[in-house]
From TrEMBL:
Coiled-coil regions, chain positions: none
Domain of life, source organism: Bacteria
Residue ranges occupied by any 3-hydroxyacyl-CoA dehydrogenase NAD binding domain in the UniProt entry: 3-181
GO molecular function: 3-hydroxybutyryl-CoA dehydrogenase activity; NAD+ binding
Keywords: Oxidoreductase
Name of this chain's protein: 3-hydroxybutyryl-CoA dehydrogenase
Residues of the 3-hydroxyacyl-CoA dehydrogenase C-terminal domain: 183-280
GO BP annotations listed: fatty acid beta-oxidation
First-to-last residue of the parent protein present: 1 to 289 of 392
């Protein structure tokens, strides 16, 4: 199968690695040359590490990388059988992208979004053939996280969700079918987790490091809420919170926090920008509040 992935950031690069590892030819596109180059280095680095750990042979790592084509030319997507986007979490931008993609691909090409929170129906609505549209939502980092949410929209044709579920399973992942509602399963449950952690901080109940420590040591989470938000990126995470809040008709359970909004506005996106809740100026030392 030839799979086109649009957006080569944290998610697109990880998904490209998963799909190429599963044996498919992958075309990975970004509008930003540097992002594309970073993705190439990061995938190569990740495959090299897996080979060093003995989880892959060096030949397999080379073959996987060989199935990956980095491109800035959307026309190279004309023979794709599946196109999955992982670009900015912005509805009009995603809609416009699929309008353009649909002009290039065949009628049978499946179109999919990795959106965390936007309605799949609203992205599909921009397409001429919305019945071939579906949500395929990976978690970060995609090569490591097993769960993938598969989200049919009201327009999605009967049978496509099952087809995609089988495909995702063949990629070594654990697909879960979910309805097209804001945040689906995981991001909906996660909103109050982040929101409450920020409120605990704002109310002076404990500092960030203590909250993170408590949630990892005692709560059994792999990362505390502040470290996790910094890992996801506040550009992504704040937009998701705002989108879930507005999509639930301003239900106060999902209300965003000004603390996070200010980080977003300042460009303090977390690990990716060197500063978020914590500072990552020197990556050799643990994050400092
Ligand atoms: P990112 O900011 O790391 O990467 C996005 C990439 O898309 C950038 O390289 C950017 O240059 C590119 N891009 C933006 N507009 C484009 C366009 N019109 N055409 C081509 N390339 C374009 O973002 P990230 O974190 O990878 O998120 C991408 C999507 O995945 C978002 O919808 C987000 O909600 C979703 N997502 C994010 C997760 C996370 O933990 N960061 C987890 C699961 C889903």
């Amino acid at each position: 199968m030839i799979v086109g992935i649009i957006g080569s950031g944290a998610m697109g690069a990880g998904i490209a690695q998963v799909v190429a590892t599963a044996g498919h030819t992958v075309r990975l596109l970004d509008q930003n040359t540097q992002a594309l180059q970073r993705a190439g280095h990061s995938i190569q680095g990740s495959l090299t590490k897996l080979a060093e750990k003995g989880k892959l042979t060096a030949e397999a790592a080379t073959a996987i990388f060989g199935r990956l084509q980095l491109t800035e030319d959307i026309h190279s997507f004309s023979d794709c059988e599946l196109v999955l986007e992982a670009i900015v979490e912005d509805l009009p931008v995603k809609q416009q992208l699929f309008r353009e993609v649909e002009l290039l691909v065949s009628d049978t090409c499946i179109l999919a979004s990795n959106t965390s929170s936007l309605s799949i129906a609203s992205i599909a609505a921009a397409c001429q053939k919305p019945e071939r549209f579906i949500g395929i939502h990976f978690f970060n980092p995609a090569p490591l996280m097993q769960l993938v949410e598969v989200i049919p929209a009201v327009q999605t044709r009967a049978g496509l969700a099952e087809e995609v579920r089988g495909l995702v399973q063949s990629w070594g992942k654990l697909p879960v079918l979910t309805k097209d509602t804001p945040g689906f399963i995981v991001n909906r449950v996660a909103r109050p987790f982040y929101g409450e952690a920020i409120r605990v901080l704002e109310e002076g109940i404990a500092d960030m490091a203590t909250i993170d420590w408590a949630m990892t040591e005692l709560g059994g989470f792999r990362m505390g809420p502040f470290a996790l938000m910094d890992f996801i990126g506040h550009d992504v995470n704040y937009r998701v919170t705002e989108s879930v809040f507005t999509s639930f008709f301003y239900d106060p359970r999902y209300k965003p926090s000004f603390t996070q909004k200010r980080l977003f506005e300042a460009g303090y996106y977390g690990r990716k920008s060197g500063r978020g809740f914590y500072s990552y100026a020197d990556s050799a030392t643990p994050p400092q509040p």
